[in-house]
Every structure is written in structure tokens, then in C-alpha cells.
Design brief:
The complex is a heterodimer of chains A (288) and B (264). Chain A has 288 residues and is α/β, with parallel strands linked by helices. Chain A contains 11 helices and 10 strands. Among the domains of chain A are: 128 residues, Rossmann fold; 41 residues, no CATH class. Classes of the chains: A alpha/beta (288), B mainly alpha (264).
């Protein structure tokens, strides 16, 4: 399913003394099957953007196309369930949304709201709990007896069990240990590859953006500051530094390497493997 | 949710904002008593004018205040209807089946609901123009003498400021969880009443849990920094009573005198 934001503007608390312009003229095109990373500082409008992706917020100006639904400011939206079913959002700290007596019930909650039968939902729960790397035995436990990391995984499983066409992740690994981070990100990446699941990732981690995304959008003060593929984005680090953003460690290393040796490698590498290969090739080319 | 104005402070630079919280508290307390002096059109008119003047002094848009009070307006309307139908004095004006409307009913309904409305407006004005911390400081000072009889004034003030402080946080939290559950297919706004009542559970349970957690964290944080209230604790914010405060109270005194003359 394609999603497209066209000149979206969003004001929080419009027409009150607290009115605050959160998004200005944001246009983003998300084709089915893309992995898009949205990067930006706190308060740059990232979280506001993603709430437009399943019509939790209506733009105060401009429009949002979700599949064949058009969301604009003036229309009273009815029957948003279809939209919400096909676009799953994993919010920041999703463990805060757990409420059921057992993990199984909580995972089944989403699918059953969308009209899936109980037996089918339970099947999905079993699949989802394994996908997030937990044992089936946990299904009968209370979600509040679990550790923080396990709760996070259960909450993610709850969204996966809805079997959305598009999954939106708002800093899904915040507050997890390095191993947990990698496991969860790898899991999402596998899902993205295997099911051709469109994935939108909001993150602070340049490493994750460089590693997983096909497209990166950089938000700054409510606007899309720059869009492009990771190589394009990280080829010009000065612009990012100006915004107080960073580049992946690999890119930083390459820049240092290039300035130290006074020569350019000719392309921006995003992974350690790619960089070491390029350096080796370059050195060999140089000595010959 | 965004428009709720209960317990909400709106920063601005106005006479009311700059008043000493103590004088504001006293003023509101006196106003609440004075309101009951009014008993005819003239006196209610005077109070209405006074309230409108106070509202405009606050430099907060009246339209905003009104839209924020919308949920309460229903209560006012309800009060009006209750008096309209239940008062059985004066001339009978209108009868339809068992519904009877008397002259006195209309009068009573109008007056009582206006009184109610004015009370709501003035008390909201207090919280709109005073930060919770100022209110608490003011209250603590005013209740100070009660310390002599071992009344836990400081603890009470602290409890109050903590609860006021966490209203916006709780609102934000509610909004966040509502969104998360909406994304999981809960419909909070439409559908049959039964479903909507059921939709409250996935909202309330997470809210309760996070509130308990927050309370515990707050207690630990306070203890970790060696908090101990009351005796010997100095204040960063000093309250100062100025000419502005005295004249505001005098103005209310004037209104009171006027009411005493005009009331039937």
C-alpha cells in the first residue's frame, strides 16, 4: 500500500493561545515495500508525521493519501478501522499500552478489534510471540510480571498480530540494551524483506538508518530538510552537522581516513565490510 | 482534550497575573460569599459586569475561556432546567401534561444558573492566571496560623501542588494511550454506548499503572534529595503584597457595598 503526504501542515491546539505549528509543507512519498527512516531532533515533528500515517491526526492543511483513502482537514472521517488495520504503529515505549490479564489476550486485542475470530487471533499470537523472540510459554503470564524488555516485545507482537501492510516504528529500541536493540531491528528488517512490508522507522540512531533504510527523510523544525537514499544523505555530512545531527560511525571513520591520507575513496560507504573492502581496493590500486 | 482549561495556567502579562496569590485567593473566597448577596436582576447584573471586567483584565481571550468551559455549561443548563421545572411558585405560565412552568421557576432558574456560572468563571480565572506553585505558596501562607494547632499545612500544600502539577501530565498520558489503543482498533468516539464504555478499560488500566509508578518514582526522587518539608525550609519565591492587591480587594468591597444597597 502506498502512502503519500502532500504539503501537510499540522497545528497543535489550533485556535487556542497554545497553538503551535508542528509541521510545515511536509511532502513524503512512501511506496509499498520501502524502508523509510525519519531522522531529526526531538521536537522536529517526526512523531507528528507518523500519526498522520494512520489518520490519528488529520492535517490542518494539505492532504494524506493512505492506499485509496484521502484524509484532509475538512472531511469528517468515518470508518477509519480499515486504515488502522493496514497501518500498524508501534509507539514509543509501547509497553505502556499493555492492559490485559494475560499476554495472549493482549496480543489478541488488536486483531479481534479488527474482526478476526478468537481462534485465528490465538494462532496469530503464537506466531507473533515467536517472531519477537519469546517463548510460547509466556502467553499465559500476566504482562505486568515481565521484564521491561519482554514487555516491549509483547507490545510489538500485539501490533504484528494485526498483520498490517505497513508498519510504523517510533524509536522501537529506545531504552533497550545493545543486544535487544539489534535483535529487534533485525527482526523488523527480516519481516520487511520476507513479506515486503513497508516499514517506517523513526530513530535517533544514524547507524540504524544507514544499515536498514532505503530512503531517509531528515526533519528539521517541522519541515523535511532533506530526502534521499542513505548514500546521498551521508555523502554530505556538513549539512547534518549544522543541524546538530551526526553521521554513522563508519562514515565518520571514512572522513577521518580521507583527511588523514589526503585522498578520497570516491564513494560513501555505509557498512564496515563495504568500507574495509573499499580501503583495501584503494590501497592496492595505490601501490600498483 | 486540548481545550480543557481546568487547573490550567495560561501565561500572560496582566494585572491579574501579577497579583499576589494570597490576595487572589482571598478575593475569590470573598467573591464566592458575595455572590450569595445577589437576589434580583440589578444585583446579578452588577456581578455580571464585575466578572466581565475581571475577565478582560486577565488578557485571556474570552472566546477561549468559553470554549474551555463548554463541558461545564451542560451542568449550568441542567441546573437551569432543574429549577425551571421543580419550582412551583408564582403564576403558572405554561402547562403541558405534567410539565408545569411557573414564573418563579424561570426567575430562579436564571438566577441560580447565572450564580453557578459566575462562580465557575471566577474560580477558573484564579487557576488561569496563577501558576499552581503560586497558589500553593499563597495557600500555605494563608493557612500558616493553623500550624499552631498542629494542622499539617505544609503537607497539605505539597499534596495540592503535586496533584495540580500532574493534571497536564495525566492529560498527555491519556492522549498518548488513547492514540496507541486507537491504532489497535479501539473506537473511542463512535459506535454503540456499550462498546464505548468497554473502550475505557484499555485506557484506564494503563493510566492507573503509570500513575502508581510515577508516584513511587516521585517519592523516591524526593527522598533521594533529602526532602523534608515544613519547619526551617526557606523559599525561593517571595510573595509581596502591593498596592495592586489592596486596590483589587477594595474594588470588590465596593461591589459588595453596591450589592448591599441594590439587593431587594
Amino acid at each position: 500500500m502506498d502512502i503519500s503526504l502532500q504539503e501537510v501542515e499540522y497545528k497543535y491546539q489550533a485556535n487556542t493561545p497554545f497553538e503551535r505549528l508542528a509541521l510545515v509543507d511536509v511532502s513524503i512519498e512512501i511506496k509499498a515495500g520501502t524502508f523509510l527512516a525519519i531522522i531529526g531532533h526531538t521536537g522536529s515533528g517526526k512523531s507528528t508525521v507518523i500519526q498522520h500515517l494512520n489518520a490519528l491526526l488529520k492535517p490542518t492543511n494539505g492532504k494524506v493519501l493512505i492506499g485509496d483513502r484521502v484524509i484532509t482537514s475538512d472531511k469528517k472521517q468515518k470508518n477509519l478501522k480499515e486504515v488502522r488495520k493496514s497501518v500498524g504503529i508501534v509507539f514509543q515505549f509501547p509497553e505502556h499500552q499493555l492492559f490485559e490479564e494475560t499476554v495472549e489476550k493482549d496480543i489478541c486485542f488488536g486483531p479481534m478489534n479488527f474482526g478476526v475470530s478468537e481462534s485465528e487471533a490465538k494462532e496469530r499470537a503464537k506466531v507473533a510471540i515467536r517472531q519477537v523472540g519469546l517463548q510460547e510459554g509466556i502467553l499465559q503470564k500476566s504482562p505486568f510480571d515481565l521484564s521491561g524488555g519482554q514487555m516491549r516485545r509483547v507490545a510489538i507482537a500485539g501490533v504484528l498480530a494485526m498483520q498490517p501492510d505497513v508498519i510504523v516504528l517510533d524509536e522501537p529500541t529506545a531504552g533497550l540494551d545493545p543486544r535487544g536493540r539489534k535483535e529487534i531491528m533485525d527482526m523488523f528488517y527480516t519481516l520487511h524483506k520476507e513479506r515486503n512490508l513497508s516499514t517506517i522507522l523513526v530513530t535517533h540512531s544514524m547507524e540504524d538508518a544507514a544499515l536498514y533504510a532505503d530512503q531517509i527523510a531528515i526533519m528539521h523544525q517541522g519541515r523535511v530538510y532533506r530526502k534521499g537514499n542513505p548514500t546521498e544523505i551521508f555523502s554530505d555530512p556538513e549539512g547534518l552537522f549544522e543541524l546538530g545531527l551526526d553521521v554513522p560511525e563508519v562514515v565518520r571513520f571514512q572522513r577521518k581516513f580521507e583527511s588523514e591520507f589526503g585522498q578520497s575513496l570516491g564513494k560513501t560507504c555505509l557498512t564496515i565490510e563495504e568500507l574495509s573492502e573499499t580501503i583495501v581496493k584503494h590501497m592496492q590500486g595505490g601501490t600498483k | 482534550m486540548d481545550k480543557m482549561i481546568f487547573g490550567r495556567y495560561i501565561p500572560a502579562d496582566s494585572v491579574l497575573h501579577r497579583m499576589d496569590p494570597r490576595s487572589k485567593l482571598v478575593l475569590i473566597f470573598l467573591f464566592v460569599c458575595v455572590v450569595f448577596l445577589a437576589n434580583n436582576a440589578l444585583t446579578y447584573g452588577t456581578l455580571l459586569v464585575y466578572t466581565i471586567i475581571m475577565l478582560s483584565l486577565s488578557k485571556i481571550s474570552i472566546r477561549f475561556i468559553m470554549s474551555g468551559l463548554k463541558p461545564v455549561l451542560w451542568l449550568v443548563v441542567f441546573t437551569f432546567l432543574l429549577h425551571l421545572f421543580l419550582t412551583k411558585e408564582g403564576n403558572l405560565l405554561f402547562q403541558w401534561g405534567w410539565i408545569e412552568v411557573y414564573e418563579e421557576g424561570i426567575k430562579q432558574g436564571l438566577f441560580i444558573s447565572l450564580r453557578f456560572f459566575l462562580l465557575i468563571l471566577m474560580t477558573s480565572l484564579l487557576t488561569l492566571t496563577t501558576t499552581p506553585i503560586e497558589i500553593t505558596d499563597g495557600l500555605e501562607e494563608l493557612l500558616g496560623p493553623l500550624k499552631k494547632v498542629k494542622f499539617p499545612v505544609h503537607e497539605l500544600a505539597l499534596m495540592m501542588s503535586i496533584s495540580l502539577r500532574f493534571i497536564p501530565t495525566l492529560m498527555q498520558e491519556t492522549d498518548k494511550i488513547m492514540k496507541a489503543q486507537s491504532a489497535r482498533g479501539v473506537d473511542f468516539t463512535g459506535g454503540p454506548v456499550k462498546d464505548r464504555v468497554k473502550a475505557i478499560i484499555p485506557l484506564l488500566i494503563p493510566l492507573f499503572i503509570s500513575s502508581f509508578k510515577r508516584a513511587e518514582e516521585l517519592a523516591i526522587a524526593m527522598e533521594a534529595r533529602g526532602y523534608r518539608g515544613g519547619e526551617g525550609r526557606t523559599k525561593y519565591r517571595q510573595l509581596s503584597w502591593g498596592a495592586r492587591d489592596t486596590s483589587m480587594l477594595l474594588a470588590l468591597g465596593l461591589v459588595t457595598a453596591l450589592l448591599a444597597v441594590l439587593r431587594a
